[in-house]
Design goal:
The complex is a heterotetramer of chains A (304), B (169), C (162) and D (554).
Chain B (H helix, E strand, L loop, with lengths): L1 H14 L21 E3 L9 H5 L5 E5 L3 E7 L8 H5 L5 E3 L14 E10 L6 E4 H14 L9 H17 L1
Antiparallel strand pairs in B: 1-4, 2-3, 3-5, 5-6
Chain C lengths: L12 E7 L5 H10 L10 E3 L8 E5 L7 H10 L5 E5 H6 L13 H10 L6 E5 L6 H12 L9 E4 L4
Parallel strand pairs in C: 1-2, 1-3, 3-4, 4-5
Chain D lengths: L18 E8 L3 E6 L4 H12 L2 E10 H4 L1 E10 L4 E9 L6 E3 L9 H11 L2 E3 L46 E4 L11 E7 L2 E8 L7 H6 L5 H9 L6 H16 L5 H29 L3 H22 L8 E2 L2 E2 L7 H25 L1 H7 L7 H6 L4 H6 L6 H4 L20 H25 L17 E8 L2 E9 L4 E7 L1 H5 L3 H5 L7 H7 L4 H4 L28
Parallel strand pairs in D: 2-5, 6-7
Antiparallel strand pairs in D: 1-2, 3-4, 4-5, 8-9, 9-10, 11-12, 13-14, 14-15
Helix pairs in contact in D: 5-6, 7-8, 7-14, 7-17, 8-9, 9-14
Chain lengths: 304, 169, 162, 554
């Protein structure tokens, strides 16, 4: 692990924190345009929201103070998961970056559910419960998807694959499909934003948070979302890096650009769909994940 | 999944951005809109027809010794415009004003003060001056304006006295 | 203690819709404010689902007896600075119901009850109208956070003068 | 009472022996049956089960100033004949009035019986009773609708400072009173097992504003009440004001210019347009499809502008007066109306098509919130809810009023009874309304629009029904001196809420908001004046740990 590795990784984290709220505004702008209206006045709207929340009072319900622990855990795990991606250079966690990625993403999701439990609100708990059901299905597929992507490059590490991976196109594409689907689900967007489902849960998991706590909660959600887009972007960037040799700062730029593109595509999909029901969502996901996983691993086994 | 995305894009594209940039742009008002009312104090008689017609008590009358105040409280107004319908002098006009937001409820009040006519006999104040003048003018055509500016009680007394005198004479 | 309206509120206004027994007309106009033609998101307005997230309570209705305790609770749940936009004739003064048996009759009376209960409201702006049109609501929000100045003021006229 | 001693209609023959006397209040339209108290249950059973009448509502009246006692008016409607049947029962007691409950025969009478118990103190005997309309801290002995209680009397609040406990049932998921899916303060408690709803408890009447009492108060007169009626509901206010003025006009035999009737019908349809588009948008929003909400409301905005153009206000039009309307629709306005209608028709088609094409929306509408035809009939549901469950009920066809006899239109009926059919019924009605408006504009007769020369005798009686966007809206009116003596409003949602129970049971929690919304509830209508008890006695299983707190209260 060299100094430059660490620097780029830290830069990625910094950029993530800085632009996730901006991307959220882009999201809102895009949605507004699809709704035939103008939308937020500037690209910094979500930042303004956060700035305002930081100046507001914290109202803590009985026993709700414990919420700060899972809240910081969520943000920290999301950031750690992000730093296991190769931002143009091998990640500081290479060659075990995949393991760390899986671990930290899981930690981020789990602690997010804990927020719900520790806030003790009935809606939050239902939201957390839904989140749990969804995450437990999704996380299995996510692990399988990540592994399949890595296996189809021949190297069990993203950082390694970017340098000396041997990409087998067909299994790669199939595993990528599986992975990107899981990542879309973990970005908690419609139709899978079940935990926050406003019409029945009144913004579920985050319902009890106020002021700076809420700002923190929003940043955590956005970081989780950024992570989902960044992992998808990495999976797209890997073959480009490997075969056209875009490393270092340009590689960093490539990853960032792709992340933004993936974010926008996610936003577009979310804007044009409705919210699913938890039972239906799980059924749909399983019916998509099983064939995709089987296909990916068969292809890998038979060495296409 | 692709179908709804395409459909949404088509619908959004056809509609374009429809947002009216109020307050930088004009509001979406039609010429028929009924906003706040305005009372023209110069022609108001203080007769109280509007007060009687007002369903929500937005128009009220405050009586004191020598003054009758017609109070319009826009905060309670339901903007039906019935007052303008019934106003005999056309003093009440419905405007298109709707930007009434304020921190102080007082700002929403419009008061028209009517000094009352003083009875030359007993010195009591009884009817708003313009209303009194109007009644005088109307009755002047009939030819008996003499006791019109006298309060009803004194008028009755005077009338009775007069009658007695007539009979007696 | 009086908390100054933070300047940050000018750019980001999160609103919570609190219907206290209104006839729905103001409520649909509030939704209309968010709909494409008026699009309050232009001012950073966002409708939130929980009073904990809200800066401004959009209060409609004359506050019926049945809703009173719940309204007090909902307002108490809001973090400070706590702003209220009283929308419509009912919320401003009780409207056509002002003297009915089952209403409290407008925000000014609620404010007293809130004070008794130790719930401080940092700023209120009244938006008359029956229902208040979407433009009037936007105007009210702008006055509330200090983007625009109020236009109305008390008028006292002597009969006979112009 | 207005008297026409005419023979009893053929349909009512089976119960002839139980009737003491009958009066035609309005020949061919409304008949009043004077029934002895002990025969009431029999008569109700006969009407509801044998004759096949629907139950509309009941009203208690304090008739002590008239003859010394109370009375209860049960209103039934025979759709096929377009006939309203008022079953009139005298209650001689002055102190503890009571009347036999008909709820066992007519389940639809559940609420209105509790209502006259709350507001007038007439005890419906032979049933479970609890408080429905009045707030919990209201003193038991004050019955606001009695004539000797002043209209503005506000009993002191029990404990002003104590924050109320809401969500006190630890096993339920509270929906409301302040909940994003309900834009009104209503309180549903859903008892769930996992994600499945096993029971529902409803505490409504948060929006009870005492309208019926206000209308009798000296503050109001016949004309002013139209504005009050309009404010029963901000969405379908014109329906209420129309039903009210029609009742006054029918009772007082006031001539109404034909043109005014056309204008009223036209505005009723404009109101239906906006209301259905509003519902479509809110339904899409509840299913998480905000694009649907925005676009439906974009189309709807045009109807709002149109309403303002025609009446002067976007909502609560303020158009009606007893004897006609205040503003004419001049010929210059017609082209603009037609243009807006064209745009709305085109826009609605595209947006509705777009909303239904979203897989999640479709999946969550289809087969959810099913109300079977038998349940629908037993609960006398009205409007699109009835029509989606295979009951062909539409006041515009069954009891023609205003100008509806002169126009032709289709009444969409579906048999599935799920959320999707309720959606489709509404979407189709949008197009029917547009056609109706066009026909009305085409056939509008010339002439005056307002007749101000009227004089109404006290003691006259009328029942009117108007098809609101949500269903049948029934008003009963007894005229008094200068203002109504008694005015009773039965809003459509009032008839439809009890149907939520069969609709919600066995549903997933996620679909509860859309199912509740699918009746297009308008609580402000319903609550002018009143908890469903969980009579199942079934054990509710908790979702979460006990002693949960709703955020808004915590």
């Amino acid at each position: 692990m060299s100094f430059i590795n660490l620097a780029l990784s830290l830069a990625l984290l910094g950029v993530a924190v800085a632009i996730a709220p901006i991307l959220d505004t882009v999201d809102r702008k895009l949605r507004a345009r699809l709704h035939s209206r103008i939308g937020p006045p500037t690209i910094l709207q979500t930042w303004y929201d956060i700035a305002k929340l930081l100046r507001k009072e914290i109202v803590v319900s009985e026993g709700g103070a414990a919420v700060i622990v899972p809240l910081s855990m969520t943000a920290a795990s999301a950031l750690l998961a992000l730093s296991s991606l190769p931002p143009g250079m091998p990640s500081p966690f290479a060659p075990l970056d995949l393991l760390y990625l899986i671990m930290f993403s899981a930690a981020a999701h789990a602690s997010f559910i804990l927020i719900a439990v520790s806030s003790g609100n009935v809606y939050a708990v239902i939201g957390g419960f839904r989140e749990f059901v969804l995450v437990s299905v999704n996380e299995v597929a996510y692990v399988l998807g990540l592994t399949a992507v890595a296996l189809s490059t021949g190297v069990l590490s993203f950082s390694g694959a970017a340098y000396y991976g041997d990409f087998r196109p067909i299994p790669y594409i199939v595993s990528f499909a599986l992975l990107s689907l899981c990542l879309y689900v973990s970005s908690a967007r419609i139709p899978f934003d079940l935990g926050e489902a406003e019409p029945e849960l009144a913004s579920g998991v985050l319902i009890e948070l106020s002021g700076p706590l809420l700002a923190f909660g929003i940043i955590s959600v956005l970081l989780k979302r950024f992570l989902a887009a960044a992992v998808t972007a990495t999976a797209i960037a890997l073959p480009i890096m490997r075969y056209s040799g875009v490393y270092g700062l340009p590689g960093f730029g490539l990853l960032l650009g792709l992340t933004i593109a993936v974010w926008v595509i996610h936003a577009l999909i979310a804007a044009s769909l409705g919210r699913s029901r938890v039972g239906v969502a799980v059924k749909t996901l399983i019916s998509l994940y099983i064939p995709l996983t089987l296909l990916a691993y068969t292809l890998l086994l038979f060495g296409v | 999944m692709v179908k709804p995305i395409l459909k949404l894009i088509t619908v959004a594209k056809e509609a374009g951005v429809v947002t009216r940039k109020y307050p930088y742009d004009s509001p979406l008002l039609t010429e028929e809109f009924r906003g706040k009312i305005e009372i023209d104090a110069s022609i108001c008689w203080g007769c109280g027809a509007c007060v009687k017609a007002c369903p929500s008590n937005a128009l009220t009358i405050r009586e004191s010794m020598d003054v009758r105040e017609l109070v319009y409280f826009a905060g309670r107004c339901i903007f039906c415009g019935r007052c303008a319908d019934v106003c005999p002098t056309g003093a009440i006009k419905v405007t298109k004003e709707f930007e009434l937001a304020t921190e102080e409820l007082e700002d929403l009040e419009q008061v028209v003060i009517h000094r009352k006519v003083k009875c030359p006999i007993c010195g009591k104040h009884f009817v708003p001056q313009p209303l009194g003048r109007y009644v005088c003018e109307k009755c002047a055509k009939g030819g008996v304006p003499t006791y019109m500016m006298v309060c009803p009680e004194c008028r009755r007394k005077v009338g009775v006295k007069k009658m007695i005198r007539c009979k007696g004479g | 203690m009086r908390v100054r309206t933070p300047r940050a509120l000018k750019r980001s206004i999160w609103v919570f819709h609190l219907n206290t027994g209104s006839c729905n007309a103001c409520d649909i106009e509030i939704l209309d404010v968010l709909a494409p033609f008026m699009d309050a998101e232009r001012f950073g307005v966002k409708l939130v689902a929980s009073p904990r997230h809200a800066d401004v309570a959009l209060l409609t209705g004359p506050i019926t007896r049945e809703t009173l305790p719940k309204v007090v609770n909902a307002l108490r749940a809001m973090p400070r600075p706590r702003l209220v936009l009283a929308i419509g004739a009912c919320a401003v003064s009780g409207g056509i119901w002002h003297d009915s048996y089952s209403v409290i009759g407008g925000f000014p009376r609620l404010k007293k009850i809130l004070e008794e209960n130790g719930v401080v409201i940092d700023r209120v702006v009244y938006v008359p109208g029956c229902p208040a049109r979407p433009e009037a609501i936007i105007y009210g929000l702008a006055v509330l956070v200090g983007l625009l100045k109020k236009k109305v003021r008390k008028e006292v006229k002597e009969a006979g003068e112009r | 009472m207005n008297q026409h001693k005419d023979p009893l209609p053929e349909r009512l023959r089976p119960i002839e022996s139980l009737i003491r006397e009958w009066l035609w209040i309005d020949r061919g339209r409304t008949i009043m049956l004077d029934v002895k108290r002990e025969n009431l249950v029999e008569v109700a059973r006969g009407l509801y089960k044998e004759i096949g009448a629907f139950f509309k509502t009941c009203a208690g009246v304090d008739e002590r100033p008239l003859w010394g006692g109370y009375a209860v008016h049960h209103i039934f409607g025979i759709d096929e004949e377009g006939l309203d049947v008022v079953v009139y029962v005298r209650i001689p007691e002055k102190d503890y009035p009571w009347v036999p409950s008909i709820v066992r025969e007519v389940p639809a009478a559940d609420w209105c019986e509790l209502e006259f118990r709350d507001l007038l103190g007439i005890d419906p005997r032979g049933r479970l009773t609890q408080r429905l309309v009045l707030p919990d801290d209201w003193p038991e002995e004050v019955k606001p609708l009695r004539k000797d209680v002043p209209y503005g009397y506000r009993p002191p609040r029990a404990e002003e400072t104590k924050p109320a406990e809401v969500g006190m049932y630890p096993s339920g998921v509270p929906v409301g009173p302040y909940h994003p899916a309900l834009h009104e303060p209503e309180y549903f408690e859903l008892y769930v097992e996992g994600e499945e709803v096993v029971d529902v408890r409803y505490r409504g009447f948060h929006v009870h504003r005492g309208i019926e009492k206000l209308a009798e108060s000296p503050r109001f007169d016949y004309n002013k009440v139209t504005f009050l009626a309009e404010r029963i509901c901000g969405i379908c206010g014109f329906v209420h004001s129309c039903a009210y003025v029609m009742a006054v006009e029918r009772a007082g035999k006031v001539e109404v210019p034909e043109r005014a009737e056309y204008i009223r019908a036209l505005l009723l349809e404009v109101e239906r347009l906006h209301s259905h588009l509003l519902w479509l948008g809110v339904a899409a929003h509840l299913l998480g499809y905000d694009a649907g909400f925005m676009h439906a409301w974009r189309v709807r905005e045009k109807t709002m502008i149109l309403a303002e153009y025609l009446t002067g206000s976007r909502k609560t039009y303020g158009m009606n007066l007893v004897g006609g309307v205040r503003k004419d629709i001049t010929p210059e306005k017609v082209p603009k109306i037609l243009k807006v209608l064209e745009e709305v028709a085109k826009g609605t088609k595209k947006v509705a098509d777009m909303i239904v094409s979203v897989p999640q929306v479709r999946k969550r509408l289809e087969g959810t919130g099913v109300l079977r035809k038998s349940d629908a009939a037993a609960l006398s549901v009205v409007g699109p809810v009835a029509r989606a469950s295979g009951l062909n009920r539409d006041v515009r066809k069954d009891y023609p009023y205003l100008a509806y006899k002169d126009v032709s239109f289709k009444v969409p009926v579906y048999s599935e009874g799920d959320n999707l059919s309720r959606t489709l019924v509404r979407v189709e009605e949008i197009f029917e309304s547009i056609e109706i408006i066009k026909q009305l504009l085409d056939r509008m007769p010339p002439g005056e629009v307002l007749n101000e020369e009227w004089d109404i005798e006290p003691g006259r009686y009328a029942v009117t029904s108007v098809e609101a966007p949500r269903g049948e809206d029934t008003h009963l009116l007894i005229t008094g001196v200068g203002r109504p003596y008694r005015w009773r409003v039965r809003a459509p949602t009032y008839a439809n809420i009890p149907a939520l129970r069969p609709m919600l049971r066995g549903q997933e929690l996620a679909d509860a908001p859309i199912t509740i919304a699918s009746i297009d509830p308008c609580f402000s209508c319903t609550d002018r004046m009143l908890v469903i008890d969980v009579r199942t006695g079934k054990r509710s299983v908790l979702v979460t740990r006990p002693q949960v707190k709703v955020v808004s209260l915590g």
